[in-house]
Design goal:
6-stranded mixed β-sheet; 37% helix; 267 residues; binds zinc ion; 2 domains; globular
Length: 267
């Protein structure tokens, strides 16, 4: 396990290096760094003290229950609320339940979100470290259930990366496949990107789904940042039109899509 300090340096380096790809999209750097530091400390604490319950075989639900029973979550919520200067008036267990039932508006919900995210990330990391990589055509994270709109091209193929727990799962090996409907026909999958082909926005003409693609393998960033970096591809959304999607009984409009089109390519 790499030290928190080292991981924070990598995180900050990647933020410095790649936020320009967001093209005007802004993130609160100070807050992002503070939250990441807190989450990494919690992950580190989980790994060093609770390695048994962080075993890769566990599912998130049972892991959360075990950590509630052991008192770890309560302690983590106190620590997080202290560091974020947020008061929790309810008990940590109540705050956690409020969060799990969809209440993230209250300050306590935000603290719970941060703690649950740390647990999910810890579980995702232990699964990936033990080589447990799911191969499945789905946009839903097999570890935490969050929907991902971020695909990353790696040596082995096309992975989705979860924006919540940063788990990655393999969708296809040698060509892009739509994680929503499984379509892998290159003629009906349009990729909009800049000339440098770093980030792309993919549209599936079969089902109408769109998602972002990190094409450039030289982009090296902690996995949790890839969904953030990929947001830069939203700049190409204006090139996607409704008539590109094949409707039942409608005209096939594959000509409308130009591989490698997009802002810079046209400008
Ligand atoms: Zn996840
Ligand atoms: Zn599709």
């Amino acid at each position: 396990m790499i030290e928190v300090r080292e991981r924070m340096e990598e995180f900050k380096d990647a933020l410095r290096k790649y936020t320009h790809l967001l093209k005007g999209g802004k993130i609160d750097l100070e807050k992002t760094i503070k939250i990441e530091e807190l989450e990494l400390k919690l992950i580190d604490d989980l790994i060093s003290n609770k390695s048994v319950i962080c075993e890769s075989k566990r599912d998130l639900q049972s892991l959360i229950e075990a950590l509630l029973d052991s008192g770890w979550i309560e302690e983590a919520m106190r620590r997080a609320s202290h560091e974020l200067n947020v008061e929790i008036d309810s008990s940590p267990r109540e705050a956690l339940e409020a969060f799990l039932t969809g209440n993230v508006e209250k300050p306590a919900g935000k603290v719970a979100l941060l703690v649950v995210q740390s647990i999910a990330r810890c579980l995702a990391e232990s699964k990936l470290e033990s080589g447990e990589i799911v191969e499945e055509v789905t946009p839903l994270c097999p570890v935490c259930g969050a929907e991902s709109r971020t695909m990353v091209l790696e040596r082995e193929g096309y992975y989705m990366v979860c924006p919540f727990c940063s788990y990655k799962w393999l969708v296809s090996r040698d060509k892009i496949r739509c994680p929503y409907c499984g379509n892998d026909n290159p003629i009906s999958l349009g990729v909009f990107s800049d000339r440098a082909r770093r980030l792309g926005l993919v549209v599936c003409q079969e089902c109408g789904a769109t998602w972002r693609l990190v094409i450039d393998k030289s982009i090296k960033a902690p996995r949790i940042l890839l969904p953030v970096i990929s947001l830069g591809a939203e700049a190409y959304r204006k090139f996607i039109h409704n008539d590109m999607v094949r409707k039942p009984g409608g005209q096939h409009t594959t000509d409308a899509i130009v591989e490698g089109g997009g802002e810079d390519a046209q400008g």
